[in-house]
């Protein structure tokens, strides 16, 4: 029976119940309809956690299925706990008691998802949930569980030591997604076979090289590995995992080398220094790369065409850029999507033309100009003629978006070059609002992000630069979108 049929059946039962409200006994009979318990459990499992708990209070059938509810998600939001409903220093005690009560009445059978997210930890006494976490996991981590997500935030140096013995029997064989945050994780060869695991995510987790190798060696079906702030990892070794396609490694401070023998890696995200040695085996298959480091633009232009020639998506974030992007003969023949974020406003943005010349298949370009301490030379402070680069016409570039567009001379030069040399351009968006959401973009935001008087003044100069230098060069076939600070939220600001 499909979900729609199930809901219609429920509607029919509700109508029948309304006709017989005179008898409470009859209501109880209606609360146990002729549908099989498997169907009721399935319907119940589709409800969000809070709604599932509510209907269990008013329906005998749902009350029974609540004892084997498969998707358990616990957070302060789940229970509606905040400073308005509970004293700040008592939130975690209330949270712990509520989880205790729910799991006390749960059979522990049929759990597929256990997701615990903790955020309201302010002092040492808020670590009470850590004392109960082992017993909670003993209830839910059994054969059949598919997703386990733990963010048991502690404070005052308290870290949860995940009990790897949970997986020593067949409990881990069905696990598909494991996500651990802020804890100790020390698997050994006794961890057992995680033969169904497809995603492993470790954020702020204390785990050493050999321990990570143990879990990877038993995860034959792993498709995605995500490591962030794992400060104990020095040499990341990835065995020949045939299904691993996505690798993310971010800010692992002691990391010196990554060696991967996974033959089908297609997506790689790495935030780390250039001195980290990368050995990715058949890097020719990598089609998507995110790279965050110093001099990322220079590195990408000089090294990547030969190392990863089949890239289709490239995103780079440069914390500092000491050298301009050079003009080179090497090509990104398959690159379609390019995102560059530069944390330096006085950078020579016109040098980024090198990426366009190297990317004949480029379709979308996004430039994020991150505000820095160094102020760029404004186009209005230097009256000399705009520099022009040799025209290399783009035949496929359709969309260009520049966030935090300003009157910086080199940024205006780059924009003019794009407009003149790109005959295929369909949409050009210049955002002078620093790329922040406006009140009209977000229903939950009553007002725009606060902008200083200096930022508002620069936005005005950027708008003038667009009108003076860019707009006259834009073809009538191009949609030009110029996003400016909200006139309503900044109406009272003095420029």
Characterization of this structure:
The chain has a 16-stranded parallel sheet that branches. Strands 8-10-12 form a 3-stranded parallel sheet. It is built from 13 helices and 19 strands. Helix 7 packs parallel to helix 8 and helix 12 (409-421) packs parallel to helix 13. The protein starts with a helix and ends in a 12-residue tail after the last strand. The protein has helices at 3-19, 24-30, 37-45, 49-56, 60-66, 76-79, 91-104, 128-140, 209-217, 296-307, 353-358, 409-421, 453-470, and strands spanning 71-74, 113-118, 147-152, 160-161, 177-184, 199-206, 224-228, 235-238, 246-250, 257-260, 267-271, 277-279, 288-293, 313-318, 337-342, 364-369, 399-403, 427-431, 479-483. It is of the alpha/beta class. This is At1g61320/AtMIF1 LRR domain-containing protein.
Short description:
Pfam families: LRR_At1g61320_AtMIF1. This is At1g61320/AtMIF1 LRR domain-containing protein. The chain is an alpha/beta fold and 495 residues long.
Provide keyphrases for this structure:
495 residues, LRR_At1g61320_AtMIF1, At1g61320/AtMIF1 LRR domain-containing protein, globular, At1g61320/At1g61330-like, alpha/beta, F-box-like_dom_sf, 13 helices
Q: Per the principal axes of the C-alpha atoms, what is the gross shape? A: globular
| Helix fraction by DSSP (H/I, runs of at least 4) | 25-40%
Q: How many helical stretches?
A: 13
Cα distance spanning the termini: 64 Å
Total number of beta strands: 19
C-alpha Rg, in Å?
28 Å
| Mean pLDDT across every amino acid position | 83
Largest sheet: 16 strands, parallel
SS strand fraction: 15-25%
- Which structural class is indicated by helix and strand composition? alpha/beta
**Which ranges are low-confidence, i.e. pLDDT below 50, for 5 or more consecutive residues?**
1-31
């Amino acid at each position: 029976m499909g979900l729609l049929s199930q809901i219609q059946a429920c509607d029919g039962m509700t109508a029948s119940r309304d006709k017989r409200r005179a008898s409470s006994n009859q209501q109880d009979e209606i609360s146990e309809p002729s549908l099989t318990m498997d169907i009721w459990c399935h319907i119940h499992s589709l409800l969000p956690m809070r709604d599932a708990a509510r209907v269990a209070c008013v329906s005998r059938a749902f009350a029974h299925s609540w004892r084997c509810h498969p998707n358990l998600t616990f957070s302060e939001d789940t229970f509606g706990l905040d400073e308005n409903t509970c004293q700040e220093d008592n939130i975690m005690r209330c949270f712990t008691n509520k989880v205790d009560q729910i799991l006390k009445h749960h059979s522990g059978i049929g759990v597929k998802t256990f997701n615990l997210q903790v955020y309201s930890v302010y002092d040492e006494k808020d670590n009470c949930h850590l004392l109960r976490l082992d017993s909670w996991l003993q209830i839910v981590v059994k054969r059949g569980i598919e997703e386990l997500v733990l963010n048991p935030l502690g404070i005052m140096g308290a870290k949860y030591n995940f009990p790897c013995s949970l997986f020593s029997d067949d409990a881990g064989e069905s696990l598909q997604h494991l996500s651990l945050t802020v804890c100790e994780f020390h698997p050994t060869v006794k961890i057992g076979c995680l033969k169904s695991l497809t995603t492993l995510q470790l954020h702020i987790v204390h785990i050493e090289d050999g321990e990570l190798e143990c879990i990877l060696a038993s995860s034959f079906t792993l498709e995605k590995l995500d490591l962030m702030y794992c400060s104990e990892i020095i040499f990341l070794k990835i065995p020949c995992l045939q299904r691993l396609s996505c690798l993310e490694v971010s800010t692992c401070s002691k990391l010196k080398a990554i060696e991967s023998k996974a033959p089908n890696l297609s997506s790689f995200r790495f935030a780390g220094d250039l001195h980290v040695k990368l050995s990715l085996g058949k890097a020719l298959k990598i089609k998507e790369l995110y790279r965050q480091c110093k001099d990322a633009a220079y590195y990408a232009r000089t090294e990547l065409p030969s190392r990863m020639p089949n890239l289709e998506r490239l995103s780079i974030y440069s914390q500092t850029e000491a050298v301009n992007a050079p003009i080179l003969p090497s090509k990104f023949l398959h690159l379609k999507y390019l995102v560059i974020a530069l944390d330096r406003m006085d950078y020579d943005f016109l040098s980024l033309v090198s990426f366009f010349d190297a990317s004949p298949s480029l379709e979308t370009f996004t430039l994020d100009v991150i505000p820095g301490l160094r102020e760029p030379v404004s186009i209005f402070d230097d009256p000399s003629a705009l520099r022009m680069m040799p025209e290399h016409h783009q035949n496929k570039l359709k969309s260009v978006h520049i966030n935090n567009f300003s009157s910086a001379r080199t940024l205006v030069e780059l924009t003019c070059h794009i407009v003149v040399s790109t005959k295929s351009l369909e949409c050009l968006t210049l955002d002078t609002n620093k790329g922040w959401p406006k009140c009209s973009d977000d229903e939950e935001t009553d007002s725009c992000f606060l902008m200083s008087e200096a930022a508002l003044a620069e936005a005005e100069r950027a708008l003038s630069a667009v009108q003076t230098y860019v707009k006259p060069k834009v073809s009538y076939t191009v949609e030009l979108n110029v996003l400016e600070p909200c006139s309503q939220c900044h109406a009272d600001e003095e420029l």
